[in-house]
Write a structure and sequence with these properties.
Order of helices and strands: HHHHHHH
Structural class: mainly alpha
Distance between the termini: 36 Å
Number of strands: 0
Number of domains: 1
Largest sheet: none
Helix content: over 70%
Number of helices: 7
Shape: globular
Radius of gyration: 14 Å
Length: about 130
């Protein structure tokens, strides 16, 4: 599964780059993701805190408040958010139980991949730094 997930992330990176280049489109996507995370609180479960941090990182980046994040981290985070928001991904969200397992897999993979950058962002957030 991990190899297939990596291939998917590479392919989805093209769409994520389109979002990264259009701040308004990214803001809309982040709003959708925040709504879905609130609505599906129980399904997001163990990723809720890290997903929230990832959304805040992207929002800070879009607003120009946090610029030291690597481009690869932005693209990977956007891949996860796009996948999370899209109800018709590899396993559609309306499929009982299984519909969110693939979302959790993609989010978990991306969170592990950007973990160091996310931690640095959270430390800056706690210290109130704008970088």
């Amino acid at each position: 599964m991990k190899r297939g997930l990596k291939k998917f992330v590479r392919a989805a990176g093209k769409t994520a780059r389109v979002y990264a280049e259009d701040k308004k489109k990214t803001e809309h996507l982040l709003d959708e993701a925040a709504r879905k995370a609130r609505r599906e609180k129980g399904l997001v479960g163990e990723f809720a805190e890290d997903l929230g941090a990832m959304l805040r990182l992207l929002r800070a980046w879009v607003k120009g408040q946090y610029r030291v994040v690597p481009w690869k981290t932005i693209v990977l985070a956007l891949v996860a958010v796009i996948y999370f928001v899209d109800p018709f991904d590899l396993v559609p969200d309306f499929v009982p139980l299984m519909g969110y397992v693939d979302d959790a897999g993609v989010i978990g993979f991306v969170l592990r991949s950007i973990g160091k950058d996310l931690k640095v962002f959270q430390e800056c957030e706690v210290e109130g730094k704008r970088v």
